[in-house]
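Hi X.,

You mentioned you wanted examples for the new student's onboarding notes, showing what a folding record looks like when two proteins sit in one file. Here is a clean example. The first protein comes first, with its sequence line followed by its structure tokens.
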Amino acid sequence: MSNEKQLLQSVRGTSDLLPSDQPLFQKVNRVFADIAIACGFKEISLPIFEYSWLFQKGVGSTSDIATKEMYYLHHKEGDNLDIALRPEGTAGIVRAYYEHGMHTWSQPVRLFYSGPMFRHERPQKGRERQFTQFGIESIGESDSSEDALVILAACQALYRLQIKPENFSVHINSIGCTHCRPKYIKKLLAYIKTRQGKLCDDCLLRAETNPMRVLDCKNKTCQAHTTDAPNHLDHLCDNCKNHFKSTLEYLEEAGISFNINHRIVRGLDYYTRTVFELIAETGTLKGQALGAGGRYDNLVATYGRRKAPAVGFGAGVERTITILKDLKLSKVPTEKPQVFVIQLGSSAKKKAFSILRQLLAAGIKTASSLSSNSLKTQLKMATKNNVRFALIIGQRELLDKTVIIKDLQNGSQETVDLKQYLAILLERLK
């Protein structure tokens, strides 16, 4: 491949969202947003890049994101600040929470966002190096009901998209807190030492940096050799036990089925207590997470601020679209034009442009082809656009100050005064 041809292709791990893809993309985002708003979350927009320290400190300096996947930006000479494209949304939310004094607002502060994220990882089905994430975050509430609310919102969004409970499953776990987790880690490390010769290199590295990630390894051999690993739930302190039990009771009350899965640990350092994933049970993404989240009570304090409890969830929009396509749920009714403006002659074309403005100002969805001069061609285009009415103006109509309203469903037409056509058209479009 020549350099010129290569430069005329999208960068590996990115893709174009074509006009035909937009209706479904917008629908998924709209449904997620509607559910979030219904649950009391308010929208926030965040910058695409932040100081890299924000992510290194938040997700963990030894995490895969910080060590392998972040895109760092070059700076002008003399600028010593390290900046990175955002790989996830939570850290930016926490930064905004304090920067804008949200900690002084009535708590909890519930926010939602949507936008592109960037990770230099192996492109795969439903996940590229640039992907769109929808997320909800609740900061300032420690009660388990907030955990359940976030999970409920995530599930309801999928239900609203007609993804049924049998198409995905909720996997949930508790990874404890700073008080009980160290004791568990000690037991887990002792266990891992007995399996060192049977684990992959990544697991051996994780054992030194984040031992719980060994349980999250997708290598089938590693999974087989860690089936009897210590269960975190057996080592929770009383507070964490009660929190987890209460969360599950709320979910049961809401009729949400779940699987307690001690392998769900999530790959980011900031998680505490509740962690969960929504796993696809069908299609090309079977076994993969459509979205995930959990509680992160210590993240705010990690940035040197007063501790604030928090819980959140993030969903991959592209992954959601993939399962919708797998389930044959990707068709989205599109709004079609109601009127097609047809003009004949240069003078009529200028008047047609004025009519076009009037129609748009009245909220009428309108199509036209001002570059065409043939009546036959323009009528074909009107028919192809499946519009109800065509407005036709030629030289005669221009002189008479009239316009022809043609009903393309029954073929009837009438000539009306230019001053009256809009009122007549609006009445017929009711």
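Then the second protein repeats the pattern, sequence line and then tokens:
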Amino acid sequence: MSSNQIQSLSGFRDFFPEELSSRRHIFSAWRRVCERYGFSEYDGPPLEPLELYTRKSGDGIVGQLYEFEDKGGRPVALRPEMTPTFARMIALRAAALPKPIRWFSIPQLFRYERPQRGRLREHFQLNMDIVGETNFLADAEIIAAGIDALRELGLNKSHIRVRVSDRRLMVSLLDAIGVAGANHHAVFNTLDRLDKRPSDEIAKELRGIVSDQEVAGRILELTERSISQLQDEFADHESVVKAADDLVGVLGCLEKSGLEGYAEFDASLVRGLAYYTGTVFEIWEREGQLRAICGGGRYDDLLQALGGVDLPAVGFGMGDVVLSELLKEHQLMPAEVGCVDDYIVCVSEEERATALKVAHSLRDSGRRVTQDLQSRKVSRQLKAANQAGAERAIILGAEELSRGMVLVKDLESGEEQEVPLDSLTDRKE
């Protein structure tokens, strides 16, 4: 590589045809699942007013923004997540949209963070959201859709697990053990790092927040409880019971849907983003070697906070970087699909005019066609046809054309047969 050759920025990707083929494979699976669930696709601008993210996204996201002033002096940022844009768009047409609203998108997102396995500075993400429904059935359906988006790609319960909890449950538990409401957000931020830092560091940080060693210890104990244990221990706390019952309902819906064995309650899960208000969940690969594949939950206050209308909402984001790693690890990423059906081979330049006509006619019929442009030997053209992944080579020679025929070679089997020239586009493939 030349020393003066410009390279891509760290954390950003070039998508050569083989990489783009893998991306299209993932996107196609995502779209199939979204459409089966009755969701409509939308998109928004990659550049938004900075305020859209600083209002409710939380310190983690704000600290990773690609932000700057545009030429008009306006503070702007490349979108680091899709939910604020989604909320802004819903607010614009909330009154006219039938409820519940079911939308999905596959945006490219940007965050300035340290590139590592499973995390880059740009990625694509499947977002699915339901707006206008408070029933926990919506929460269950969103989680089920996230699971199915992975099942569509060949993953199953032996590969992935779903951690599920509820912000309302943890808020009620913190209230019950005497943690002041002003400290809840700091506690959530600390608990969100439980899987990334040693437990003694987490305990020390919690003691600094609540200023009570016993209470700090209780917080960590609660994160290890099963949902039935919490229901028994806090049976006299109405808010705990209500949140726990709803969560049991969500998990029950998943089992009744045939997705038993995928989801499990995890009281330590709180999600770091500030706008979550209820159910939260993450999907992880079973062995825990990679980052979370998917994360989401209920955010009933966000639309209103962004200057819109008061509508409940639940949704998730699923990134392509970690998912691609997981699919490759389990050999579930298909080989690059060929982009050519037919390769036109000319025995000599005398057949060129016919080749052009045949190629165009086949393309009109829906076939993907290319041809040799260099007047090479037949053997070289056939080699190129194989390299292109073509299904068949259509060989045009003077002798065959004089009889109104062409030679068609099946490039997989090697079989050859003469067929009438005017029948090529009538063949049922």
